Amino acid sequence: TNDFPWVSATANEFVLVYAERPRDPATGECIDQGSRVMVRTSRNGTRWSAPVEVSPVAGHAFQFMQSIACNDEFCQALWYDTRNESLVFDATIGASVEQKHWEENPYVEDFDVFDQKMKKGLRFRRTADVYTTRINIDGNGDPVPNAQPERVSRYIVDNTGSEREVNLMNVQAFGGNTVSFNGDYISINELGSGNFFAAWTDW
Length: 203
Prior knowledge:
Elements: E1 6-9, E2 14-20, E3 36-42, E4 52-53, E5 63-70, E6 74-81, H1 83-92, H2 101-104, E7 111-115, E8 120-124, E9 129-137, E10 143-145, E11 150-151, E12 172-174, E13 179-180, E14 186-192, E15 195-200
Antiparallel strand pairs: 1-2, 2-3, 3-4, 5-6, 6-9, 7-8, 9-10, 9-11, 12-13, 14-15
């Protein structure tokens, strides 16, 4: 996972966000099981706070291509997040697929599975949403992300309340429509009065 670091600053702290693989609690080594957006702060740019997950999530979700902007008091982070696709997969066909699909596909790539119930192969296409959350700074200068992030990407909803579109992550739009590339197209800016403006690309 590309760490893709971004840094901004409040009146007193530098605030850094980046992505990394989850770590094995026993060894501290990174493992192939998605990625998480982390945040650290520093008052002088030399000594940094311990890393904190911006939005902890269970399972095999990928969080990546993060951005951050701050005003004098707090920050707002923005990132792509695949948490919803893994929930949908596990709730629909995950139980009928024999192989360890997440462990064998530790990247944000489309992959093939064989559905034992339907007795046929299926192509699972990876999708992502865009999430944001506020990051407050406590009295010690440490980051304190809000417990509940907000999903900001939305798509067409049908009369049942279900979304009919998704943001596919592996559209072959480059190299003569042979190469998948999502681009580094996500950003957030502070507008004043506690307001922020976010922009990103859907495929």
